[in-house]
Amino acid sequence: MRKETFGVTKDGKTASLYTLENNRGMKAVVTDFGAILVRLIVPDNTGKTADVVMGYDTLEEYFDNGCFFGAVIAPSANRIAGARFSIDGVEYHLDVNDGPNNLHSHKDLGSHKRVWDAQMGENSVTFSLAMADGELGFPGNKKLQLTYTLTEDNELKLEYAGTSDKKTILNMTNHSYFNLDGHDAGDIGEHVLTLHADAYTEILPGAIPTGRLLPVEGTPMDFRSPKKIGKEIDADWEQLTMVGGYDHNWCLNGYDGSIRLVACAQNPSGSRTMEVYTDLPGVQFYAANGVTECAGKDGATYRRRGALCLETQYYPDSANEPDFPSAVFGPDRDYRSTTVFRFV
Length: 344
Prior knowledge:
This protein is mainly β. The chain contains 2 helices and 29 strands. The protein has helices at about 60, 240, and strands spanning about 1-10, 15-20, 25-30, 35-45, 50, 70-75, 80, 85, 90-95, 100-105, 115-120, 125-130, 140-150, 155-165, 170, 175, 190-195, 195-205, 210-215, 225-230, 245-250, 260-265, 275-280, 280-285, 295, 300, 310-315, 330, 335-344. The strands form 8 sheets. A 9-stranded antiparallel sheet has the order 11-12-13-14-29-23-22-17-20, with no helix packed on it. The protein has a 5-stranded antiparallel sheet with strand order 1-2-3-4-5, with no helix packed on it. The chain is globular and about 55 Å long. It starts with a strand and ends with a strand.
């Protein structure tokens, strides 16, 4: 475990980098600014290492970070329709920042733009952040926490926790962009993806769920068997064309609060495989359709569909869909979740 200075924020706070390393050549570099995963260096089955997540070289570049590279999103990831929700008859209003809707809580003031408190462990670091009642529109005095742990089994484990003194919405995720050939390797259309999900949440324009869970069978959304991401991504099919490709929530099989294997991604040569485990009900598979050409770390140029996101979560707009698994937490229900990215 190593700590070093990353830079100084706009409001004069010092941000640090924390490096976790195991004995098998894997390394994770995270920062207390936004609890962001900056680098994830992973060996393939020949021992060759590559940094498999998009990101930036400097703290200053993360001040914008419009694509949310590596960021932890809180209090609520993904979209909330109309930028409002009600709990026990009280309506709460959020930042309108994605058409008429709310996306990722707040693009400038959300958790990904704040310096978290940090505590180092043996091969882990725990980030903590407090948000006051009413901040960003969400009720309750909230205490949020994320622990990154790197194991000897080449697992990056993310353990989230949250408490609130009022009922509120808590739906945290990590928004890392993965390319298993390396962050600078280009289009991920030849990557092979498996999603253990029989259904997905149907969306309207604006990517807001309709409330209906539709079967993947017979559609381009069917990844129950390994399939190349590019095989059907440009199909003339309304669910894809309205968001330019894959940017949907899959309803993960076997949701009962236990951790299970939910997804698997593999680079084209088959030399590097990432398994995703979670205890959450959903995962947003995003094929980086909205990424425009930009400069990344190590002199890389990032382009559209140069990576994939697998954001474990409660379903989008669950705040307004009573039939979705509930993301309401408060005095009688603490938030706890675990997601593991395992490389084999």
